[in-house]
Amino acid sequence: MKTINLTVNGREISGAAVEPRTQLADFLRDSLDLTGTHLGCEHGVCGACTLLVDGMPARSCITLAVACDGAQVTTIEGMDDDPCMRALRAAFSREHALQCGYCTPGMLASARDVVLRMPDASEQDIRYAMSGNLCRCTGYVGIVKAIQSVIAERKAAGIAGDQNPRIELGPVGSGHARCGAACNGVSPAATRTPAAGTVKAGSAASSAPARPAPQAARPASADAGKPMTTLNQTFTVDFPRDEVWAFFGQLGEVTTCLPGASLLAPATETHVEPKLRIKVGPIVAEFEGAADVERDPANYTGTIFGSARDTRSSSATRGEIRYDLIEEKGGSATRVDVQVGFALTGTLAQFSRSSIVKDIAKRMTDAFAENLRARLSHARTGTPADGTPAPVAAVSELNAGALVFSVLRDRIAAVFRALFGRR
Q: Residue 205 domain-assigned?
């Protein structure tokens, strides 16, 4: 995972964790919910994904997100107040330059560049300039007429000359937000100033010896992008608090107590790289990520910050887990209070909105607690010389679908019991 900082539609995106191979279009759609950028061929041919990077048109399906670190990105959603784009939208509607609309966002982004850069363009010039944007509906006649009409309108209004000159050599975005004043119609300095709409996404990067990994995601509730769902769970183990505290300091051991969890690399005292396999019906997700922990020995509290991305789909998650260890039974037992905050995007996001997610989290916590008790007992009796791990329930994947079914079954049974009791 890598960390990037960029400006998207005038908003600062800070500390966003992306894989090196993630395309800009996927990052915008899956992480920022900017679905106005359409994906067609995904080979840079059809032009449906065209947007602006540092004020210049770019194919976002073949542009790596990490290559846009420090750049300004403007999608179709960020062009509402652009005068040229307003004129083009009206002209496209007037000239019937769109039908299904799938190519339209990319078509408009390219058309804007033509209007600003080629004020004296002929019909042949427009057709040549727009040849990189494919449309299967209109036959291009209306598109060309719409662009011609906007150029004519601007000339009649006295707006002439090249408004979007090419001032740098190299790939689009290589200037890293050093484009001219035509970037979105305002100066780059103005668009890069944090404002009320500031967004801090995802996580920061950390370096582990074996592989690059995302560091802890530390989202603040007011400016962390998508709001997090918060859950509170409590369980008790019959072990003194100091023993439980010492065990919680072994991040690898704690991580693998979670059903379906394994390690991608050896854990350190403050950093762990987990893998979590989850099955929801026909969907099987394998989340890979990283997390860091801050511990307060004086108060027996700790906070884990982390983020992860599914290697099979567009789902991603970030979260924050806080735990408090409280003595009970005169010090012979420990109550573990856990507060979990998480945000899930992509295919599995619907799972986080479920009304029964709290029941599922409770069952997951129960399984974690059982594994924790087994590990603590094993640690107390001693680890064999051959390094045999503590006995825990072997769970290769977390079957969320089965958990959902069991929760629904229990709820239905409770309803029948209540009805029977009233009768």
A: no
